[in-house]
Input
Amino acid sequence: MSGRAEGGVGRTGRAPAANYDTHVAWAAVGALSLATLVACALPAFQIATDAYIGAGSEQQTFTYSRKLGLGDLRPWSLVVPAGALALLGLSVAALRRGNLAALAVPAAVVAALGTIAVIDLGGRMNWGDGVGVIGYSKPSGGVVLQPALDDLKADARRSPEGRRPGWVLLSEHGYRARPLAGWRFLALAVPLLAFSARSRPSGCSSVRDRRCSRPLCSACSCWPGSSCGPSASWSEDQRFSSARFSRRW
Output
C-alpha cells in the first residue's frame, strides 16, 4: 500500500507546477491584452511632410504634421482592439477550463501576427533630425500608415499656400514618422504577449485531457514522441507499474 502511495505522488508530482504555469501564462496574456486595449486610446504616431515655394533666398518652406491614434487608422485600427479582445476572451476561457488546444492555437496565431505587424510597422518609422523627409521612389507607408500619409498630402495641397503657383512637395512619396506613447506601449506589450502565448513548458500534464502547462504546448509539443506526448505518458505509466510490481516482490 505504501508503494502505491509513493508511486502516485511521483506520477502526479508535476501536475501542481504545470497548473501553476498554466495560470501564470494565461494571466499574463489577459493582462497584456488589457494593456493593449489601453494603448489603443493613446496617440500612436506623428507623421509629417514638407513642401516649398520658390528657390534661393526667396524660398519658403512649409511643414505639415499630424498626430494619429490607432482610431485614426481605419479600418486597420479596428484589428488591434479586436485582436486584444479575442486574446482577453481566450485567456479568461483558459483560466476557467484549462489550457485546451482549441484555445491555445488561436491565441498563439493572433499573438504571432501581432508581432509581425509590430516589426513591419516599426521599420517604417524614421524621423531623422525633424527636418526634411525620408525620400522614397514609391509609396512606402505600408497598409497602416500610407492612407494617413495620402490624406495628409491631400490636405497640404488644399491649403492656401498649396494653391499658389510653384508650390511642390519636397518629395512626392517622402515622409517622416515617429512613434508616440501609444505605439511605444504596443511595441513592448505585443512581443511580451506573444512570448507568454508561445512559451514552451518544462513539463506537461497528460495529453489524454489535452491540457499542457503553457498556451501553445498543447498544439506543438503534445505529439507522439515529444516530452509530453502519448509515448511519454505511456512510458511514465509503465515505470509506475514496474515500480509497483517490484515493491510487491
Notes: Residues 1-15, 199-214, 217-249 have pLDDT under 50 and may be disordered. Strands lie at 43-53, 60-69, 168-169, 176-179. The CA atoms of residues 42 and 204 lie 39 Å apart.
